[in-house]
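Weekly structure sync, notes
Attendees: PL (lead), two postdocs, one rotation student
Agenda item 3: pending single-chain targets
PL asked that the sequence for the first pending target be pasted directly into the notes so everyone works from the same version. It is reproduced below exactly as submitted, 406 residues in total.
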Amino acid sequence: MTIMRALAKNLLAVLGLAMVVLYFAQLFPRMQKGLDFADFYAAARMVRDGHGRELYDPLVQNQYLIRYSGRVGSYFNHPPFETLIYLPFSILPLSRAYALWCAFQAILLIAVARLLERNVLRRWSWRVLVLVFLLYVPVLLDFLQGQDALLLLFLLTLAFATLERKREFGAGCLLGCGLFKFHLAIPAALPLFFIGRKKLACGFALVAIALLAVSIGISGWAVIATYPRFLLHLGSLPLAGIHNAQKANLRGLFGLLLPGSEGVVLGLMLLSSALIVWLTVRSHALAMPDAGSARLAFANTVFAALLVGYHLSPHDLSILLLPMILLVDHLLTSDGIPRSTRLVLLVTLGVLFLPPLHLLLLHVHLYSYACLPVLVLFGVTCTEIWRTARRLDLPAAASATSNQSR
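Predicted structure, written out during the meeting:
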């Protein structure tokens, strides 16, 4: 009976995800001209056809986009090695490739839920987590767009689980695998380098070198200069889809508040980013694994990466599922959390996770304001780490003073 009940629950969770996959697959023919998946598909086809050296030529990209999706722009702007992920899907026609990619994303979401069940919320079933995740708007946007944020979420969650087992080199390799979104992967790994985790840094660097070699193999040595130049001029290309109002990070927020002041925006972004990175490093230095604050420090690393990342799209907020779950676990398992801190965390987590905020900001084209609850969570998490460190240090200091007096 227990086995049958478990199978029934598994089937229910899988059916829920299957319905999401089928919905988006059915929607694709009407939406394909406005979805990002065509960019990845066209880039993979370019590599298959031997045009890897022209991967960042907007004219060639447009030719492939017209051929396979009937439109031009936006553009594939990720590193060359990521085309290998989409390469197997490019064998199929575009609509079938999209449906298969959605199924792949569903598998990734199940894997994330299983990892969190085993390593964090052991009292919660992965089936429940999967269904709860589908309430989070950025996850649905990632499915809709055929994007890769859920793949990064999976790698971050696996890296967290690997760090929990004290396997720093493996965790560094996994973070390095996330370099297809280098603007998020590098800020996520950077604070860990500053606290002397040499094995993690070695794993990250080794994978980064390997991926650079793969990219050179796909697009030639010229890609070292061509790719950065393409990114610098991306905003000036027609239909590139780069807008400050859609970036839920510091750059987007300052750009929205100070339109037309690019120099001021850049200066504010650099100063605030340096402060956030310093606070993240400080939090890691004070974090105590036995007190659970090491998990909070990892959560802050993800918050910081999202806030300081130069480029961000609404679906990229999918990676916030990991730090939000870590904060929920902290609320459920930790004693002595001040009532005010608990209230702020509960309210902010609810606002950030539930659909109304995302739907409203997307509707009014002011999604940058979604970074405000992320900033609140980052600040409260830093405060909680420091409070835990002080609380645990006080008895140790009192004991040392007592021993000296004797």
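Discussion points:
- The chain has two domains: 1-232, 244-389.
- The radius of gyration is 22 Å.
Action: rotation student to compare against the earlier draft before next sync.
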